């Protein structure tokens, strides 16, 4: 098995027998053990991801030497092979180590005494012979044989797939499929990408090629079609693809004739794996799960709105008036309507730009429900958005994942504990930043809302749609079936901020006002893109700390449209790391391919990790989510781990999880959604991809700032973005279902 260290040709090889296990992590297979070398009879300490290793194992190791701070010289294993013991003594030692369930030292002696060097053949292929050994019944013999076959099936799988699957993937497959894993893979390797997260089509396809599976195999084409649908859902937010687009796209990706793709689609429709239907004149092809998701969202929204008990208008008005008197305020007419509609509808949408009083409405609604002794849950899609909601309302808000109580026990099939079988207790569910919610998360939420409860969705419909599939909030609004209030009045205090004023100007297709005296919205003209990025680095390192102090600068966030390019996150993060956290003898580092992680780096979690553990004030929990930002506190190379602080949570990351992290001095606009930062810097660069020069992208970035916005680059790019109100087409069918 490979543990991703160095080129196989450069590794030292050692053959020997495992003497004892020093440490074993059963979750990830990391093992430290003593090995007796065949060449020298020396005892060496070796370590690596080697699940199932036991005393007596005969191993061929490839790797290199390292020095551990606590345990001294060790051989770090990059690749290994297990060999079955061959002699009677080796077999006896192996079985005596309790490597096979049901066999201890005394039973091992009896078995080897009877069958000698044929012992393994008897255990694997003739368990009925094993029952001839005194003390072993027929049922026990079968159990021993089953465990033995499962173990060596696992090892065979690891050897068979070692060029294509990581050790961690092999461990997950073995846990789920057991001894049948290799047979299942040989039957259809494409099952891997359907049933295991992180094992994509391309990896399964490479394994299939090595097995000699034909390029035009039905298995390959059918799996490839689902892959194309999943990839376009992930990259473009599509719930479906038109048949006329799916067929040529899949044919191109798979390098097969379109007729074969068309035939495969028909088979998959007949097999109830795809759905073909008409959506707004389009011949739509859905993955079955996506179609069912849209249908269930529409069905549950309609049910909630239909069966919600209505309140007496006079009672609601009296409660609103009571709050106005107590707080010595009078709600604007649209705010008043929004409060009344939120209380008196099963489903209600509240939308509006910055400074229009959405928080005021939420607070009033919470107070009214409190007066009515109704239980309220507040939630948002991300941790940062939930934290902002808590601060604004002075009530606890959770992430939607936490509200629904994510079950992390199955990494490949994470589920929510709260669902139609275990409904949420609350009478009212209020969700902020609803534009970020994709169709799958919305469906999970709705499944858990009890009949008769009220759902209030709050969001800015002019921001970017969700990163995931669907356009849920806008589709709900566009349907016209659910009460929607859009707040438009900018209140006095908010109106004094150029950030708020310019956000609304941008949203209305007007150029922002720039560089007013003592204001909070600035533009720095730079002719070349490279000059813009250099200026951004200088601002963060030198000019802003001198002008505003270190405290404000701790809240700086560079937000840029793209990952790649001269002003993309990749380039900016390299430059900002060099300027703000350069190499030092006092700071440890870990290199992962072209990325160097260093103590003191600002990093972001880029995918949901539902089972990673964290600690906060002596309490433990699990889960770090896409978009969470933290700082690397320590890197422990011998332990192959690092510690990262996310606000008040401390998390230990094994190096095997570093693919889940990226540097975060600069982040994309999409990654910034749901967050708020004191100071936002954004490059306006001509080489920005045209599809990213859009009004709603600029609007979303500007509305992330609380205290100051600085745009750096070319003014004509600002103009291009403001004038480009083109919405990226998303193929969704929620409107049809509603």
Report on the structure:
With 738 residues, this protein is an alpha/beta fold. It has 5 domains: 1-83, Nucleic acid-binding proteins (OB fold (Dihydrolipoamide Acetyltransferase, E2P)); 85-177, DNA polymerase, domain 1; 188-284, Arc Repressor Mutant, subunit A; 308-488, P-loop containing nucleotide triphosphate hydrolases (Rossmann fold, 3-Layer(aba) Sandwich); 498-723, Rossmann fold, CATH 3.40.50.300. It is built from 29 helices and 30 strands. A 7-stranded antiparallel beta sheet has the order 23-22-26-25-24-21-27. Strands 11-10-14-15-9-16 form a 6-stranded parallel beta sheet, sandwiched between helices. Strand 2 and strand 3 (43-49) form a beta hairpin. The longest helix has 23 residues, at 138-160. The radius of gyration is 30 Å and the shape is globular. 43% of the residues are buried. The model is unreliable at 1-9 (pLDDT under 50).
Report the average pLDDT across residues.
89
Name the CATH architecture of the largest domain.
Answer: 3-Layer(aba) Sandwich
Enumerate the strands of the largest sheet in spatial order, edge to edge or round the barrel.
23-22-26-25-24-21-27
Shape: globular
The total domain count is 5
**Total number of β-strand segments?**
30
* CA-atom Rg in angstroms: 30 Å
Helix tally? Answer: 29
Helix content: 40-55%
Structure in a nutshell:
The chain has 5 domains: 1-83, OB fold (Dihydrolipoamide Acetyltransferase, E2P) (Beta Barrel), CATH 2.40.50.140; 85-177, 5' to 3' exonuclease, C-terminal subdomain (DNA polymerase, domain 1); 188-284, Arc Repressor Mutant, subunit A, CATH 1.10.10; 308-488, Rossmann fold (3-Layer(aba) Sandwich); 498-723, P-loop containing nucleotide triphosphate hydrolases (Rossmann fold, 3-Layer(aba) Sandwich), CATH 3.40.50. Helices cover 41% and strands 24% of the residues.
């Amino acid at each position: 098995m490979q543990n991703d260290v160095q080129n196989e040709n450069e590794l030292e090889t050692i053959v020997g027998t495992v003497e004892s296990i020093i440490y074993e992590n059963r979750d990830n297979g990391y093992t430290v053990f003593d090995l007796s070398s065949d060449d020298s009879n020396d005892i060496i300490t070796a370590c690596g991801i080697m699940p199932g290793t036991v005393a007596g194992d005969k191993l061929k190791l490839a790797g290199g030497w390292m020095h551990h701070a606590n345990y001294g010289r060790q051989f770090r294993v990059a690749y290994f092979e297990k060999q079955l013991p061959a002699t009677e003594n080796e077999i006896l030692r192996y079985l005596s180590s309790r490597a096979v369930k049901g066999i201890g030292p005394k039973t091992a002696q009896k078995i080897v005494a009877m069958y000698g060097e044929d012992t393994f053949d008897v255990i694997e292929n003739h368990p009925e012979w094993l029952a001839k050994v005194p003390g072993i019944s027929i049922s026990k013999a079968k159990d021993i044989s089953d465990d033995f076959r499962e173990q060596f099936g696992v090892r065979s799988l690891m050897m068979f797939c070692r060029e294509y699957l990581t050790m961690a993937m092999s461990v997950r497959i073995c846990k789920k499929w057991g001894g049948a894993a290799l047979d299942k893979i040989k039957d259809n390797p494409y099952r891997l990408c359907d049933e295991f997260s992180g094992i994509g089509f391309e990896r399964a396809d490479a394994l299939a090629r090595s097995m000699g599976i034909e390029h035009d195999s039905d298995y390959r084409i059918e799996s490839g079609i689902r892959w194309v649908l999943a990839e376009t859902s992930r990259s473009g937010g599509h719930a479906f693809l038109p048949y006329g687009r799916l067929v040529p796209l899949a044919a191109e990706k798979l390098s097969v004739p379109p007729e074969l793709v068309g035939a495969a689609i028909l088979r998959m429709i007949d097999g109830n794996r795809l759905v073909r239907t008409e959506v707004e004149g389009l011949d739509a092809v859905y993955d079955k799960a996506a179609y069912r998701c849209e249908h269930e969202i529409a069905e549950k929204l309609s049910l909630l709105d239909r069966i919600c008990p209505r309140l007496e208008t006079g009672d609601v008005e009296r409660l609103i008036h009571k709050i106005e008197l107590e707080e010595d305020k009078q709600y604007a007419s649209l705010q008043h309507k929004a409060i009344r509609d939120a209380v008196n509808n099963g489903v209600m949408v509240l939308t509006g730009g910055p400074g229009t009083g959405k928080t005021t409405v939420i607070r009033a609604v919470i107070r009214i429900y409190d007066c009515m002794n109704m239980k309220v849950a507040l939630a948002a899609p991300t941790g940062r958005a939930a934290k902002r909601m808590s601060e604004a309302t002075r009530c606890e808000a959770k992430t939607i994942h936490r509200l629904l109580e994510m079950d992390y026990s199955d990494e490949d099939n994470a589920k929510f504990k709260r669902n139609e079988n275990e409904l949420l207790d609350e009478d009212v569910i209020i969700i902020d930043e609803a534009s970020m919610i994709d169709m799958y998360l919305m469906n999970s939420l709705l499944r858990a809302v009890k009949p008769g409860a009220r759902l209030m969705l709050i969001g800015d419909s002019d921001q970017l749609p969700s990163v995931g599939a669907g356009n849920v909030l806008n589709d709900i609004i566009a349907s016209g079936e659910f009460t929607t209030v859009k707040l438009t009045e900018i209140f006095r205090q908010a109106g004094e901020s150029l950030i708020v004023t310019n956000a609304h100007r941008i949203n209305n297709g007007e150029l922002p006002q720039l560089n007013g005296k003592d204001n909070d919205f600035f533009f720095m003209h730079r002719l070349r893109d490279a000059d813009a990025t250099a200026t951004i680095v200088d601002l963060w390192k030198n000019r802003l700390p001198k002008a505003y102090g270190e405290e404000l600068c701790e809240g700086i966030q560079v937000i840029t449209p793209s990952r790649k390019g001269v002003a993309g996150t990749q380039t900016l993060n390299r430059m900002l790391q060099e300027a703000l956290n350069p190499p030092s003898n006092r700071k440890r580092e870990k290199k992962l391919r072209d990325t160097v992680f260093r103590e003191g780096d600002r990093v972001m979690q880029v995918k949901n990790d539902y089972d990673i553990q964290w600690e906060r004030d002596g309490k433990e929990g699990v889960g770090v989510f896409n978009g969470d930002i933290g700082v690397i506190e320590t890197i422990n190379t011998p332990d192959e781990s690092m510690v990262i602080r996310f606000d008040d949570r401390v998390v230990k990351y094994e190096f095997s999880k570093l693919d889940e992290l990226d540097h975060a001095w600069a982040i994309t606009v999409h990654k910034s959604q749901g967050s708020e930062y004191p100071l936002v810097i954004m490059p306006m660069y001509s080489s920005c991809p045209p599809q990213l020069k859009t009004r709603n992208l600029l609007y979303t970035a500007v509305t992330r700032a609380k205290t100051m916005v600085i745009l750096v680059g070319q003014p004509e790019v600002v103009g291009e973005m403001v004038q480009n109100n083109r919405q990226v087409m998303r193929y969704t069918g929620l409107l049809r279902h509603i």
